[in-house]
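Researcher: Quick sanity check before group meeting.
Model: Go ahead. Protein one:
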Amino acid sequence: MEYKFYYFPGRGLGEVSRQLFALAGVHYEDIRVPKEQWPELKPKMPFGQMPVLEVDGQQIPQSLAIARYLARKFGYAGKTPYEEAIVDALADQYKDFYVEIKGYYYPAMGLAEGDVEEAKKNILIPARDRYLGYMTDFLKKSSSGFLAGQELTYADLILAEHIHTMRSVFPEYTKGFPEIEEHYEKVTSVPALKKWMETRPQTNF
């Protein structure tokens, strides 16, 4: 199969899919589209946005749809129908959380104007406490140290990548959440993922 992955130069909504390729050791063309080239490419994308995965010429849009496709293809989506459902639910919960914190995230990353400290207090911290609280509950029930089942899934990648990004602007982001910190260390120490993180293009987010 021939894979082409289209996204902007940063990690953002495309990073989990890139990590899945790295974990699986599967070759793909990592097409990082510069901002100035995006207007020309945009009309060719199904929803006028990225990321988009092209598989033998067929396009798959939407970041979570792509991650789910790759995770199922490569064995990182859960080992039973129940595990798959829980992993998908964890991913969907992150998407809800991401929408909730946009008022902080965009100004903090320099993507929009706004009072970052005010947004941290009123938007990020309450949402973080709920989201990381939910994830902590799953980890406390886990015997493997992963969010669902006995093996790494794309839900673990989503959480770990989120922590990595948020610590860049809020170093104490996980203070008071020891299970989350342990989970981050466990996930990012997986050899193939560790190698990818050390060698991937360095971007702010």
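Researcher: Fine. The other one?
Model: Protein two, sequence then structure:
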Amino acid sequence: MSVYHTVLVVDDDQSIVELLRDFLENDNFHVMTAGDTEQAWDMFKQQPVHCIVLDIMMPGQNGFELCRRIRGESSVPILFLSARSHDVDKIRGLTLGGDDYIVKTASPGEIVARVKAVLRRSASPQPVEGRVLDYGRFKMNLSAREVVVEGKNVVLTPKEYELLRLFAEHPRHVFSYEQLLEKFWGGVGDRHTIRVHLSRLREKIESDPNHPQLLVNVWGVGYRFEGG
């Protein structure tokens, strides 16, 4: 099988870097590695990267700050890999634009599986000729993967886009927390994970995120899309 995706692994623990490199290369990924965020930033700017596995605590700038810099110009999938398992760290990582958060107790095989999952979600689907979901002030062009709200293009991460597409293709349908966790996170995570991603989506598509009109909460159950 030929190499098909480039993964950038950023961690100052060389043993973890080498272990992940072995497992990823065994699955035919091309792997680049960096021991700190400045080196990672330079590599990201110079070469195409399809996914980043990013530690948080490193010398100099931490992984959160690198994620913030990358999100300023790219929606490349970012998976945080950290020894820190507190909810506050997970929420911060997802809020900054991370697509997943993995605790380092996870096996290398699980990490590779999560990389594959986020790449599947971020892959552009086959174009659907002329497929536009039009709800007035909200439009979603599925063939171009574009979202326009009140005439302005909205930049979304791959997971944000797929979440929004699911809702937009099923207006007024209530998706439970459990359904969303299973579909987008393989059943791994909790309601905090979903709330953080939906909150981030609302910041981008709602006129007033504190009083959402598009993505609304169905108390105790999940969320639904109201359309324009």
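Researcher: One line on it for the slide.
Model: The longest strand covers residues 6-10.
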